From TrEMBL:
This protein's UniProt keywords: Cytoplasm, Repressor, Translation regulation
Upper lineage: Bacteria, Bacillati, Actinomycetota, Candidatus Aquicultoria, Candidatus Aquicultorales
Subunit-structure text: Interacts with ribosomal protein uL14 (rplN).
Localization: Cytoplasm
Gene that encodes it: rsfS
Record-level GO cellular component terms: cytoplasm
Record's protein name: Ribosomal silencing factor RsfS
Length: 115
């Protein structure tokens, strides 16, 4: 499965669990280890966890292998590594603090829209 398809499925899965501010950043010209970062937000640690689980479930159904999972105890930031796509799910407070989008401000990006 192509990276573009994986990131689209991940974004849809996040939206299904009411993730907000879903951004897709094309970092293929910056990194050799991945093609896309997807960043989204949840209101609470529990919602962040639910979003992550839905993304994992949808991609597992399509036989997309998860390479890694990182996160803090409070579930305020979860990272899912699918190789060509890395997903960051934050609470809004953590997202505002880390401001990952600013690190790749020169990379092409778009906001994922439902429907």
């Amino acid at each position: 499965m192509e990276a573009q398809e994986i990131v689209e499925i991940a974004a849809q899965a996040a939206a299904e669990k009411l993730a907000t501010d879903i951004s897709i950043i094309d970092v293929s010209s910056i990194f050799v280890i991945t093609d896309y970062f997807m960043i989204c937000s949840g209101q609470t640690g529990r919602q962040v966890q639910t979003i992550a689980e839905n993304i994992e479930d949808k991609l597992r159904e399509l036989k997309v292998r998860k390479i890694g999972l990182e996160g803090d105890k409070e579930k305020s930031w979860i990272l899912l590594d699918f190789g060509a796509v890395i997903v960051h799910i934050f609470t809004q407070e953590q997202r505002n603090f880390y401001q990952l989008e600013k690190l790749w401000s020169d990379a092409p990006r778009r906001t994922w829209e439902t429907g």
